[in-house]
Amino acid sequence: MKFCKLLLLASMLSMLNGCLFTKVVTVPMRLGGAALSIIPVAGNSAHDAIDETAEIIDEVPI
Known about the structure:
62 residues
């Protein structure tokens, strides 16, 4: 019974935050972009490109 309640709660929480599968893909992308933004010249443009791509992936209706 406790497992069923926990499973129900986890599924409800995952639905509140949008699609869980796209978050699994975009969170590492965003972390990589944040790490690249440290590079002086090309870092910000790379970060912006990765962030824009992650936004597009977040909008995919799965």
